[in-house]
Amino acid sequence: MNIITVSTQPFNDQKPGTSGLRKRVPVFQQRNYLENFVQSIFDSLDGYEGQTLVVGGDGRYYNRTAIQVILKMAAANGFGKVLVGQGGILSTPAASCVIRKYNAFGGIILSASHNPGGPDADFGIKYNIGNGGPAPEKVTDAIYDRTLTIEGYKIVEATDLDLDQLGTSTLGSMTVEVIDSVTDYAELMQSLFDFEAIKALLTSNDFKMCMDSLHAVTGPYAKTILEGMLSAPVGTVVNGVPLEDFGGGHPDPNLVYAHDLVELMFGDNAPAFGAASDGDGDRNMILGSNFFVTPSDSLAVIVANANLVKGCKGGIAGVARSMPTSEAVDRVAEKMGIDCYETPTGWKFFGNLMDAGKVTLCGEESFGTGSNHVREKDGLWAVFFWLNILAVRKQSVEEIVKEHWSIYGRNYYSRHDYEGVESDRADKLITELRAKLASLKGQKFGNYEVDYADDFSYTDPIDGSISQKQGVRIGFTDGSRIVFRLSGTGTSGATLRVYLESYEPDSSKQNLDPQVALGELINIADEIAQIKALTGFDVPTVIT
Ligand code: G16
Asked: Distance between CA atoms of 30 and 240, rounded to whole angstroms?
């Protein structure tokens, strides 16, 4: 089989964001665009010759095309073997699981996560290292540097492989094994949770649940595990077939985009438990009957109840949350006497802490929770964790969360997103905000007094690497916070995210609508950052 080197020219827009390179499909379809990035990944790695690479994606439009290219380039560049999910399907946590289980050198995951899919929508590619987690910044920086100087890429001349048949074939001297997308992940879940107890819950007459896979990647996983291994009634999983365009929807499990599920869960005769996951299966939303669990609260409840779950029986080493995530979990960690780490936004920052054994459970406010069972956040894992808690505690979701608040206090929390802001306007807002930081301390805004104001910088406690400018934080003397940052995952314009948080220890005041409880802080955020004036938006596009 012929290996050819194709000459190419650099593209100047291949800087990976919060989670890999995400662009519109037509951008990826430009001649050599994907190939340049893949070669830049390989050129930034050492010692992969003869080793195993894992490849899979969320099934969105362009997934199959990209996989064929990656297989041929992996063969030309000297990988020994590629494990690829059947039909090109591997959820992000399943890819992480497979990388770890088979000691692969790394993996390439094709996904733009929660962004819509289709010929004119988004596509993405990211590299995960041998621990199964997203490449750390020093690797993504090296990849980006390489994209700016690349002159050629290597590829074998070969016909496309059949990705739908399980089994082994060869591409030049490289072996390609098409593996079942679900089996390894399902086995891992079974080892972590009490499947017998969950099965008893799911088959009891007075419990009903709905899992909405939003036409995205978790469908096959949820069906196999929930409706198969756990005997939930057929139909428990809805929108369970991954579609290239996610049925035209926005595969983001939040109150806005998972509207059908939200309607069901807040309607008459709502099921006891509802959940949704995103495009590539790493995010989750948890709902009870007429009740929404914020991701920050979900993390705190999971940590507080970890002793009920088989996978955490050995105890929890520590926990971590991204900086904008609410401090609800900090309160649990404090009571448990374990460390709580605060990292920048993005799952890649949790990897080192987990590898060093410092963190067992972690999460982000952006509907992401996970543990050291893999090195990605894991949507279905959170669903099974909650089911396991419900099976043991025999209380409703609402009762469990309210009891939690009565013990630890409630962190009212909300995120306001302004999507599609002109980039220049968004940059100006952040620049002006940064310029104000030094003068904010001690200033009073209504009932609030600024305690600190800074631009979050993180020094990784394991490798000492420093990540600066990770979000502007304004903390108030009563523990409330406002955080501002620009999204690193968008593909057009800018998205401003404003995170708001206040703390309420008094049980009698814990039942307010968060938008009401946070009302004054919402106004202060606008006053300080001039959001309306500078973005031109009167209201956020998404409130979660
Ligand atoms: C958003 C979230 C982050 C999350 C990231 C990647 O980033 O705010 O918390 O880590 O997406 O998530 P996923 O892998 O599900 O796409 P950003 O930069 O847009 O705020």
From this structure: 32
